[in-house]
Specification:
Radius of gyration: 22 Å
Helix content: 55-70%
Shape: globular
Strand content: under 5%
Number of strands: 0
Largest sheet: none
Order of helices and strands: HHHHHHHHHHHHHHHHHHH
Amino acid sequence: MSDANKNLISKSPVLSYGVLAFSIPIVLLFCVPIIFPALIQSITSEFSEFAFYTPQVDPFEIGALAVPFVIVNLSILLIGIIYYKKHLSLNRFFNFDVSNKIALTIVGVILSIYIILTLTEFSIQEPFNDFSKIEWIVMEQGVENLQGFHHYVKLTLLTISVNIFGDMRVIPFIGSIGLLVTTFFISKEITQKRIPGIIAMVLVLQSNIFLTYDTSATYSNFWILFYVLSIYLILKKWKLSHISFILSVFSKSLSGIFLPFTIFFVLNNTKGKKRIYLLIFYIILIIGGIFAVTSTNILFGASTYHPENFLKGFIVFSYQLIHDPIILIFLLPLTVGLFLKSLKGFRQANSIQILISGILLTTPLVVVFTSHTNEPYRLIPLVVFFAIGVATLFGKIKQDES
């Protein structure tokens, strides 16, 4: 085990319960629309307080995934109870791994198949409405004429893609491949095993949302790639972490809202001078971000405040992820699994759980404090950290089941 991971073992349950207290209400609100799609909407309707109001849809109508959601979650709960009552051990399963050569071969084969199957998308014009706007900025206006830093890195990379490949979507596609590779390596680093990294990469690849936007120039994955890379670099090359985070913000300013989660990750995974240096930098970024938000509209556009939209923000998950049933059905069991993993001393489980819950929370916060609508591509960070969370459960640290 590397020195970095030796510092991840902690038997104190206080933090684990604190993370659970933060995460479980968010995840449960996430799960409500899966079972009752119209319930929150009926409660939060602006007309619900009027005597003449009658809902058009039964608020307790069962959703399409409600039955499999309940069956899977109850089954996992039953298996978990049996596991702990019988004191069963999964050591042999968790001890299994493959060599570095075999792992890289598997990763190469998976990526090759993915690349070959995706190349056909370049013969079709990008379907998103904002594509013409992005094309005009890159081809006509030029990145050098941009006002402010919005999407500066993203648009620069799109310009390079046009100049080198003649197509704006080539480098975004390369960025999506880089996101898959980074998912593998961060999972491998967290678990100190290669199989979980492969599992995480496959989980991202099977996501409908990821496959919808993987070649998009309009909604490119640059911001997500640079953010996930910044998390990985905290563990491997911490002096480069802040550079990757800044690139993420300059790709899409929404990345700035992830700063508190990054600080938790730093506190939970570093110590000594390394922790102090990273905290100083990220706190400076927070101060700068607060100044930018309060003095200009540079981050998220015109600011608003609509607290009534908070619960509505959780509704979008059930229909935006309708073609990603694995996340919808297994998020609650993953939350409990990460909590139990952290109780056994694997501190990284807390880090990943905060990232997952924090990303879920950003969706309601965006519609409360800004005029933006929630678009499906903003859930790709959830897809990635869900996959890493599953990989974390498959990781085996000797102290886990001692």
